[in-house]
Amino acid sequence: MQTIGAARRLVNRAEPPDRGIWDRPGFLVRRLHQLHVALFLEEVADGEVTPIQYGLLTILSMQPGIDQFTLGEELGLDRANVAGILKRLEARGWVKRMVDADNRRRKLCVVTPAGKAFLKAHDHEMQASQQRLLAPLAAADRRQFLALLERLVEGNNDS
Q: Is residue 63 within 8 Å of 73, Cβ to Cβ?
């Protein structure tokens, strides 16, 4: 005859073990972001640019003349953070901001030729950092992972 303790151990074997924070999507997303930043800094421009700065430059190269508010929306950042990042990139000569002639309260942003050259010079490194991040996944899993990430971001973007 089994004791209650032995029966509990048998039942527990059938249930998945409690993995603590490893079962929490928020923890995994935060940890994956930490890994992404580390890989990016190792690969791209000897760590002289952050992923968010690189992303900002990329958006500006694709949408020249975008205003700071819209840029913040694209990046998922508030106006103050965008202004700080732009200020740092402007100090490096990679971005130029100008007052919108139609609305003097808005600032329009463009990537300078030096900023475009920086992006072009480090595009291969940026791509390599992305590939390193996804390397543990098979090609089909990479596509599915990116599709699921996009769905999660779009589904929660209003938050």
A: no
Name the one residue in this structure whose structure tokens are 């990329």.
58
Global pTM value: 0.84
Query: In whole angstroms, what separates CA 8 from the centre of its chain?
Result: 44
Q: Which residues contact 134 (CB under 8 A, 6 or more apart)?
A: 142, 145
pLDDT digit string (tens) for 50-98? 999 999 999 999 999 999 999 999 999 998 999 999 999 999 999 999 9
Let me know: does 108 contact 98? Beta carbons within 8 Å.
Answer: yes
State the DSSP H helix or E strand holding residue 67, giving kind and residue range, or none if neither: strand 66-67
Write out 97-158 in H/E/C secondary structure. Answer: EEECCCCCCCEEEEECHHHHHHHHHHHHHHHHHHHHHHCCCCHHHHHHHHHHHHHHHHHHCC
Quick one: which H or E segment has residue 56? helix 51-62
In whole angstroms, give the CA distance from residue 86 to residue 83. 5
